[in-house]
C-alpha cells in the first residue's frame, strides 16, 4: 500500500506501508474463516447482545466483542472482525485498527495455552531472556509460533506489572512467578502432558478460549478460593516501613 504526505516545501512525499517485520499475519491467514455459519452466528449474537447491553453506546463494547470472537477462533479472523463490525456499527477498517493496536488480540491461530515470557528490563536481567531462549529450543518453535500438537503458543511479552516476582512467565495471563529455565521447561511439559501446573497465585488456569470468554466479560466459572491479594514481595516495602516507624510526609498545603 502506498500513501502520500506533504513534505516540508509542500511537495508530495510517497511512503510505502507494509506489515511490521514481527507482525507478518495482518489478519491474513490461510484457512481463516471468512464468515460464520448461521448456527455460530446465532450463538455469538446471544453473547454479543448481553455484552453490548452493558454500555450506553454499543461501539464501546468493541474490546470485549473482539475477545468474544477470539474465543471462537483463537485469534481475530475476517469472520470475527466482520461480526464485530456489524454488531457495533463500525467499519471493518475501524475494527481492524482497534484489533491490531492491542497485543492481547492475536493475529494467528493460538494453542490451548499461550505461554508469555516477560522479556522487559527487570525480568530480562533476572533471567527472562534466558528462559525465553531455553523454551524456544526446548519446544522447537520461535516467537509467536505454536507446537505441532496445538497445545502451546510461545510469545515474548511486555511487563505485566509483576516485576517484584521477576522473572515472570504467564500462561493465558495467569502468573507463574520467580521462574528459571528449568521450572519453565517443567511448566510447558505439564501443559503438553494435560496435567498443567497451577499458577503461583490468582485464579486457576483454564484454556485460551475460556480465558478469552472471561475477558469478554462472560461468566467466570472458576472456583473463587480467595486466591487474590498481594504477595510477600509486593508488601516488603510496607513491612520495612512499619518496622522502622516510617510515615509519609504531610501533603502539600499542610494537611496530613
Ligand atoms: S519487567 Fe517483567 S513483570 Fe515487569
UniProtKB/TrEMBL annotation:
<keyword id="KW-0874">Quinone</keyword>
<keyword id="KW-0520">NAD</keyword>
<comment type="function">
    <text>NDH-1 shuttles electrons from NADH, via FMN and iron-sulfur (Fe-S) centers, to quinones in the respiratory chain. The immediate electron acceptor for the enzyme in this species is believed to be menaquinone. Couples the redox reaction to proton translocation (for every two electrons transferred, four hydrogen ions are translocated across the cytoplasmic membrane), and thus conserves the redox energy in a proton gradient.</text>
</comment>
<dbReference type="InterPro" id="IPR002023">
    <property type="entry name" value="NuoE-like"/>
</dbReference>
<keyword id="KW-1278">Translocase</keyword>
<feature type="binding site">
    <location>
        <position position="118"/>
    </location>
    <ligand>
        <name>[2Fe-2S] cluster</name>
    </ligand>
</feature>
<dbReference type="GO" id="GO:0048038">
    <property type="term" value="F:quinone binding"/>
</dbReference>
<keyword id="KW-0830">Ubiquinone</keyword>
<dbReference type="InterPro" id="IPR036249">
    <property type="entry name" value="Thioredoxin-like_sf"/>
</dbReference>
<dbReference type="GO" id="GO:0003954">
    <property type="term" value="F:NADH dehydrogenase activity"/>
</dbReference>
<dbReference type="InterPro" id="IPR042128">
    <property type="entry name" value="NuoE_dom"/>
</dbReference>
<dbReference type="GO" id="GO:0051537">
    <property type="term" value="F:2 iron, 2 sulfur cluster binding"/>
</dbReference>
<feature type="binding site">
    <location>
        <position position="159"/>
    </location>
    <ligand>
        <name>[2Fe-2S] cluster</name>
    </ligand>
</feature>
<feature type="region of interest" description="Disordered">
    <location>
        <begin position="217"/>
        <end position="256"/>
    </location>
</feature>
<keyword id="KW-0408">Iron</keyword>
<feature type="binding site">
    <location>
        <position position="163"/>
    </location>
    <ligand>
        <name>[2Fe-2S] cluster</name>
    </ligand>
</feature>
<dbReference type="Pfam" id="PF01257">
    <property type="entry name" value="2Fe-2S_thioredx"/>
</dbReference>
<keyword id="KW-0001">2Fe-2S</keyword>
<keyword id="KW-0411">Iron-sulfur</keyword>
<keyword id="KW-0479">Metal-binding</keyword>
<dbReference type="GO" id="GO:0046872">
    <property type="term" value="F:metal ion binding"/>
</dbReference>
<comment type="similarity">
    <text>Belongs to the complex I 24 kDa subunit family.</text>
</comment>
<protein>
    <recommendedName>
        <fullName>NADH-quinone oxidoreductase subunit E</fullName>
    </recommendedName>
</protein>
<dbReference type="InterPro" id="IPR041921">
    <property type="entry name" value="NuoE_N"/>
</dbReference>
<feature type="binding site">
    <location>
        <position position="123"/>
    </location>
    <ligand>
        <name>[2Fe-2S] cluster</name>
    </ligand>
</feature>
Amino acid at each position: 500500500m502506498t500513501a502520500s504526505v506533504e513534505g516540508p516545501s509542500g511537495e508530495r512525499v510517497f511512503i510505502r506501508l507494509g506489515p511490521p517485520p514481527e507482525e507478518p499475519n495482518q489478519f491474513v491467514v490461510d484457512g481463516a474463516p471468512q464468515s460464520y455459519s448461521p448456527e455460530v452466528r446465532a450463538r455469538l449474537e446471544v453473547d454479543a447482545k448481553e455484552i453490548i447491553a452493558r454500555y450506553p453506546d454499543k461501539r464501546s463494547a468493541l474490546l470485549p466483542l473482539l475477545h468474544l470472537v477470539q474465543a471462537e477462533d483463537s485469534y481475530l479472523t475476517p469472520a470475527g472482525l466482520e461480526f464485530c463490525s456489524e454488531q457495533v456499527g463500525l467499519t471493518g477498517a475501524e475494527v481492524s485498527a482497534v484489533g491490531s493496536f492491542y497485543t492481547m488480540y492475536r493475529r494467528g491461530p493460538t494453542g490451548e495455552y499461550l505461554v508469555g515470557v516477560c522479556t522487559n528490563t527487570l525480568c530480562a536481567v533476572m533471567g527472562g531472556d534466558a528462559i525465553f531462549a531455553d523454551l524456544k529450543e526446548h519446544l522447537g518453535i520461535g516467537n509467536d509460533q505454536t507446537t505441532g500438537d496445538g497445545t502451546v503458543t510461545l510469545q515474548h511479552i511486555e511487563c505485566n506489572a509483576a516485576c517484584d516476582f521477576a522473572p515472570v512467565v504467564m500462561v493465558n495471563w495467569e502468573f507463574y512467578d520467580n521462574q528459571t529455565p528449568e521450572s519453565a521447561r517443567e511448566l510447558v511439559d505439564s501443559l503438553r502432558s494435560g496435567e498443567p501446573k497451577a499458577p503461583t497465585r490468582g485464579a486457576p488456569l483454564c484454556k485460551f478460549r475460556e480465558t478469552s470468554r472471561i475477558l469478554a466479560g462472560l461468566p467466570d466459572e472458576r472456583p473463587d478460593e480467595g486466591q487474590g491479594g498481594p504477595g510477600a514481595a509486593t508488601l516488603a516495602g510496607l513491612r520495612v516501613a512499619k518496622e522502622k516507624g516510617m510515615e509519609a510526609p504531610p501533603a502539600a498545603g499542610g494537611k496530613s
